[in-house]
Amino acid sequence: MTAVLTFSFLLFGAYACLLGYYRRGWINLRVPPLPATPPTTFISVIIPARNEEDNIGHCLDSILEGDYPADLYEIIVVNDHSTDDTPTIVNAYPKKNVRLINLSEYLQQGITAYKKKAIETGIAQAKGTLIVCTDADCTVGRHWLSSMAGFRQQTNAQFIAAPVAINCSLRFIEVFQALDFMTLQGITGGALQQGLHRMCNGANLAYTKAAFEKVNGFTGIDHIASGDDMLLMQKIHEQYPAQVQYLKQQPAIVQTAPVADIKAFFRQRIRWASKSTSYNDKSILPVLALVYAFNCALLFLPVIAIFYNPVFKIAALQFSLLSAWVLLLILKTIAELIFLYPVAGFFHKQSLLWLFPLMQPFHIGYTIIAGWLGKFGSYEWKGRRTI
């Protein structure tokens, strides 16, 4: 039992060092200024949409209200077999900037990765040199496209991972998603800055059309239902290792809606976890293994203590297995809050950190369940079941 406890504290030590490494990367990320010169980049915004009648109008309005010149961008909404009024809503917008493509007209047989096919179909008809992707349930700020184009012009980046935040009420599941998502964004930016591994979110990313064509798009990963973001990012990184970057700029933040309930949340996270074994970037796998092992220890130690709660003595200190678990939980929370504080400042969500300790039990459980089912289970998303 002493060995198990020692191993658990060693896992915490490694986990805390990892968070410190991410934190340093996040803080060292350069915050680029908005460009002072007029933009010249033509942008194609690609939005896959399936049954998004409640969201697509808000998404399009937020883009059209931006400050980017109207003659330098187009919005291509790819309708993925919607059975609601999504296509009708999109067709009501001016054709000059908004175009609807029906994915059903380009498919001759069933496929697994509908979202990838939707993006690929949109890019094939895109006029832009820079492809910017977001989701139909997102809204963007006034300077979103200007920020993307300016960063591209300043850095010559071939792939840009950009920040995403979740709008939340005070409902438990929404606050949890906002905090968890913010954590992932901090890891995304910090890891890219440190050159540790590469992550991104499909709700807000950009890449050049030339880079997409150079790596043959989704060829080789088109059999995987998820991964239109990270798996493509890894392919482009192999060709352009110095030109995959994170845009740490507040005008570039995309706001997205939280899922409605715990069941939908688990479906979403299982879908995200399902692509992990397909990563070409193997440097992320030890990180995932460390996080998973540490959370497993935090789950099983109190279970063991229910049946066997020995007392340990180190120097003049005596403590039980259960009290050691409580200490580990406190240390984990402190380490994560230290990491999250500058990230929360960037997203203007520091007030949510007071609720962070209350989320720990759910976070441990979801990490273990979603990780396991992502590898060995199946999930349903947008009315489609994937095995």
CATH uppermost class of the largest domain: Alpha Beta
Overall outline: elongated
User: What Rg do the Cα atoms give?
Assistant: 22 Å
Task: Write down the secondary-structure element order.
Answer: HEHEHEHEEHEEHEHHEEHHEEHHEE
Ends apart, CA distance between termini: 38 Å
Number of domains: 2
Characterization of this structure:
- With 387 residues, the chain is of the alpha/beta class.
- It folds into 2 domains: 2-24 and 284-377; 32-265, Alpha-Beta Complex (Spore Coat Polysaccharide Biosynthesis Protein SpsA, Chain A), CATH 3.90.550.
- The chain is 48% helix and 14% strand.
- It has helices spanning 2-28, 56-64, 86-91, 114-124, 144-155, 172-194, 209-214, 230-239, 262-273, 284-307, 321-347, 360-376; strands at residues 43-49, 73-79, 98-102, 130-133, 138-140, 159-161, 164-166, 205-208, 244-246, 254-256, 311-314, 317-320, 379-381, 384-386.
- It has a 7-stranded mixed beta sheet with strand order 3-2-1-4-8-6-9, with helices on both faces. A 3-stranded mixed beta sheet has the order 5-10-7. The protein has a two-stranded antiparallel ribbon with strand order 11-12.
- A hairpin with a 2-residue loop joins strand 13 (379-381) and strand 14.
- Helix 1 runs parallel beside helix 11 (321-347), helix 9 (262-273) packs across helix 12 and helix 10 (284-307) crosses helix 12 (360-376).
- The longest helix has 27 residues, at 2-28.
- The relative contact order is 0.15.
- The mean pLDDT is 89.
